[in-house]
Structures are given as structure tokens and as C-alpha cells.
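[step 3/7] fold_predict: job queued, chain A
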Amino acid sequence: MKKISLLGLCLLAIGSASAQNDLVKQVDRALKAGNVDYAAAREQIAPALTNPETKESAYAWYTAGKLEFDAYDNMLVKKQLGQDASSTEMGKALIAGYNLFMNAMPLDQIPNEKGKVKPKYTKSIVNTVGGHFNDYHITACDLWGAADYKGAYDAWTIYLDLGENPAFAKAMNVPHDTIMGEISYNKALAAWQAEMLDEALAAFDYAKNKGYNKKALYDYAISVAAQANKNDVVYALAAEGYKYYGKEDPKFIQLIINGYIEKQDYAQANAMLDEAIANEPGNAVYLNLKGVICESQKDNETALEYYKKATELDATLASAHYNYGRKLCEKAYSISDSSAELSQAEYNKVRAEQIDPLLRLAAEQLEKAFQLDEDNQRDALRYLRNVYYNLGDDENLKRIEMM
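[step 4/7] structure written:
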């Protein structure tokens, strides 16, 4: 059987309502015949969806939606038979079909000339969409695999919306909340990949509300909020994550403390951290954070002691080595500045006994910080250049400048 082509219909005068209705009927008949040229049918029915005379027609939107579901089903059969079928094209058809049907449904509820509501297409829409419920999740996964993240987001959005829509409840088997929460988590990741940061955060919230609160959700949601420059959201997520995973990952308390410091709420920062240190006195991360708070309050000597103790408790904590080395440098520079009025001989004595030992110790700490975490401790190199310059260590200065 030859495919029914609708291209000849372009000859119709598309400005009139009757012409538009004829286009819709032609598409409908082609679908019923079972072998339609989908590209041509889409082109032919499109004017009916925008023409003032027919854009409020439930029949037009319903037929356009039915076309897309038929196209999807046709491609699905091909895929099942091992023939070529584009996951992206299948996803577009499935998503478009839903959106077109959602336009048709309210129009199908408009009272007739006698004031009665007699829907013609709603039952078919509910059954068609409900019958494809699981296909939206499958399609979203396929679109993710094809790197069509916006498409995956849209498909998962429809899946989740259907799960909340009582009109479709009888036509579907909706999974329990934890599964829906996990799917919303996947939707959030798709939104993130599509650079839709606000949508990603909303999807993470939906997942949490459904009971999905795995650590990865907080890790990624915090990254998204930081990328969106929403520090308040970062700190709120950190506070939530800390309740579940505070002992597992010190990142959460670090972010909370950063939030308190940003607001200059040192009382809250100290209270929270002092309690954490009392519970885990050997936790180097907490001592390093305590040093940050002290430094923020201009108590540099106490900060230096906390940084030093943190490096002694955990020799692998790069941030503690960096902070300790940095404060040693600053102490050395402060002593040098305060010695400006001394004689050269007196200054040389201070330099030999106080300044240079501090700079050499700082160099050790800064070198270690960079070795432990090259990606996040690049600032250590800036301090090292100055240290080696002041120590007259040309060999190490050249080495650092090559990094």
C-alpha cells in the first residue's frame, strides 16, 4: 500500500475555517488508513493549530496529538523489529503528543450550545496517554543516553506530572513515592546538564519531598546552587545534608560555617563548631575551620595554632597546610614591616632569628598543600613565589614559576 500523501492539500485555501477543518479531517483519515506520511501530515495540520478559526478546536489538537502518538508507536515497532528508529525522534513525538493532548483536553470540556459538557476525546486521550505512561520514563533514559538532556528533562517532567494527575490515575500504575523521587532526581541531573539551573533545583526539591534524600542529591544540588550563585540555597542544603551525612562528609559543616562567617554570625559559628569539636576532638577538619573563624575575627595567633594542630592531626589535609603556611607568611611579613625602623644590623638579626625561619616553615607547608591537592591549592604557588624570592632561593623560585 502506498503511503497517503497530504501534500496536495496545500492547494486548499487555508484561510477559511472549512479549509482548516478539511486539513484536520484529511490527517484523521490518513491515520485511520494506517499508513501515513508523518512529516507531511505534521506540515498539513500545523496551520489549523494557529488559525483563529480553528485553534480553539478540540478536534484539531486531538488529531495532531493522535498523529504524534501514532508516529511514536510506528517507530517503536520498528525498533522492536531491529530496524532503525531514532531515540531522539521517538522522544520528540511522545513529548509532542502529550503537549497537544493537554491542549485538547480543556477544549473538550467546553459546554455545547445547550450548555452541556459532552467530551468527545477525553476518554481516548486518557487511555492513550495512560497506556504510554512508562514509555515516558523509558524515553527519558534513551534521550539521556543520546545526550538530549532537555528532551530527557521534558519526558521525565511529563512522567512525574502524570503521576500527580488524578484524571489519569485509573489508566496507569503509578510507582510509590520513593521511585518517583528517584526519577525526579534524574530529572534534576538532566536539567543541570541542560544548563537549566532553577529547574534542576526545583526537581531536587521535589525528589526530597518524595523521600529521596541520598547523599548524592545534596552533593549535586549544592553544586547547582553554587553555580547559580544562590548562596542561601547552598547553606540551606548544607544544613539539611549535615543532619544525614555530617559525620560522613565534613563538607556540610564547612559550608554551614562559611554561611555564618559570611553573615558575621560568629556566635553561631563558634557554638556549632565547638560542639562538633567536643564530640570529635581529633577531627582535623573541625580544627581547621575553627582557625578560619578565629582569623575572621582577627585573632590571628589563635588561628595559627588551630591550623598547626590540624596539620598535626591529619597530614593529608591540604587546606590546613595551606592555611598554616599562609598565616606563617603573613606573620613573617608583619614582623618585617614592624622592624622597618631598626638599624640594618638589628634587622639582620631579626631576619635570621625570626623572619627566615617562619618563611622556611611556611614553604614546607605550602609545598605540601600543593602536592596534596594541585587542583584546589593553586594559590599556594603565589605564596611560594614570594617566599622563595624573599629567601633568595633562586632554584626553587624558578621551579615554582614553571608550574
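[step 5/7] annotate
Residues 261 and 350 are 35 Å apart (CA to CA).
The radius of gyration is 33 Å.
exit 0
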